Amino acid sequence: MAKKKNKKKSSQFTAETADRHELYQLSVQAPEHEVATLEGAYRKAFGKKPLSMREDFCGTALLSSAWVESHKKRVATGVDICEKTLSWGKKHNVAPLGEAASRLTLLNDDVRTKRGEKFQVINALNFSYWVFATRKELVTYFKAVRASLEKEGLFFMDAYGGWESQQPMLEPREIAAGFDYIWDQDSFD
User: Fold this and answer.
1) Do residues 94 and 101 touch, judged by C-beta distance below 8 A?
2) Do residues 177 and 19 make contact, with C-beta atoms less than 8 angstroms apart?
3) d(Cα 170, Cα 164) in Å, to the nearest integer?
4) Contacts for 100 with CB less than 8 Å, ≥ 6 apart
């Protein structure tokens, strides 16, 4: 019996045609899981479904889009300093929401800016807050977050840790969309 060749699925992505924002979303984001995690933790803490969320460092606003799409009463505000990335997100993630897009506000601004609006949930995911290189910058950010949380509010950040996180590593992973994602860490500071 002849062996079948292990044929890799062809990909629509090439170095010339791939969009970095789309690749990022497919490789490292899981918005439905993140919405469920945020909601589950909030329900556990306060016994009710959260309806308002601010996504700091929102980038393409994929999570904010998934948030408003997950419930007809949910609202979200995404904040990011990169206007180009926000514009991409508006076109590819917000516009396809249709009516739900009216419940999503995107701000091209610094996440440390204090605002009057309060939220039940604020998050800073994918290690984005690491842009703050000094304790003073991080404390300023934390104070802005606290000022924007409702009394029954939760702030979510993810952490990168454990002894393995400090080791050089190369972790390839096949993405179902037809490309390989490689976490390549040469050093950790």
Assistant:
1) yes
2) no
3) 12
4) 68, 69, 72
Q: Is the pLDDT of residue 70 over 80?
A: yes
Six token digits for residue 77 = 């505000």
DSSP 8-state code for residue 155: E
* 30 or 66, greater pLDDT: 66
- Coil, strand, or helix at residue 158? coil
The identity of residue 64, as a single letter, is S
CA 45 – CA 74 distance, rounded (Å): 18
Q: What is the pTM of this model?
A: 0.83
| Alpha helices per DSSP H over the chain | 20-28, 31-46, 62-69, 83-89, 135-148
Residue 165: DSSP 8-state: G
| 158 close to 127: Cβ distance less than 8 angstroms | yes
Structure tokens of 151?
Answer: 């009394």
Q: Would you give the DSSP letter of residue 135?
A: H
Give the angle 27-28-34 at the CA atoms, nearest 5°: 135
First-to-last C-alpha distance (Å) of the chain: 53
55 within 8 A of 63, measured Cβ to Cβ: yes
